[in-house]
Sequence to fold (349 residues):
Amino acid sequence: MNSRVDKLRNKLTDGQACYISSFANIFYYSGFTSEDASLVISHDSAVLFTDSRYTVQAKNECPEFELCDDISKYSEIFKRIKAQEIFYEQQYITVAQLQKIKSYVKNIPFTPSQDIISSLRENKDEYEISKIREAERLGSEAFAYLLNELRAGMTELEAALKLEFFMRSHGARKMSFDTIAASGVRSAMPHGIASGKTIENGDFVTFDFGCVLDGYCSDMTRTIVMGHPNEKQKEIYNTVLNAQTAAIDAVCVGMRCSDVDKTARDIISKAGYGECFGHSLGHSVGIEIHENPCFSPKSEAIIQNGHVITVEPGIYVEGFGGVRIEDVVAIHNDMVENLTFSPKELIII
Fold:
């Protein structure tokens, strides 16, 4: 059985089992690439439940798992493994779904234990880091392509489509999230999803995007200026860049995540824009676009080898515009590697 399953088993005692229903954890533990599935893992069993549409796929992708295509056999499986307690992912299952599972499994308590199942994903191995690096490289290549295509008069949606088409046509399975392309005063919206607004000369334009490649997400943000930037635009951009550079330089094994956030936040606050930076400095990236730990003012997490986290400070001035710059850094072998290849000097088109 694979090492990830063995690590999960080490967290269980006799009589305990995990019922896994989220795609991210199904993929992590089994390698199965469909969302129409669930796993049951105990000390002596690893079972993948799906239906007849996916049996051939399941045999190919996860041959180490016992395959069952009849959910009514949940009862039989849990009896066979002598389950006395079943952990489940409370963040990924609805009340109706849980009740349906319980209808097949009588007299065994279900315990919400998201952390037991998901916590192993916080520390990426070298294979996972290599996959995120590849996805991040594809995002950087897509952005370089966009810069050659971008023109005033293009809509945000058109620009976003060019990014997405490049990534999909070069191997991405899908986008990590809805592409953010926000121009002009809309760039003051941290999550300004691409709209029909025309990109005009003098606009800040913020692009935040990513793709899923071989099961792992990328994420990057760059802000450019159409035409000639004014002095305030330069000031805001350089403040964000200085904050991001300082935060990346501060990252090291053993540092508290909240202290990395503070490094960037203090620079932005000293420049007079503290109230214009409302979100956390960054989040972990992996199979899902938002994972733990994160760089935030409240985070008590300590940076460890295997963490892969974004560093994305921003300044957003309502009615004027905003800037965000985002890279993904990997901490491994007691070193920090920036996985994002795009240049960060202010780009003027």
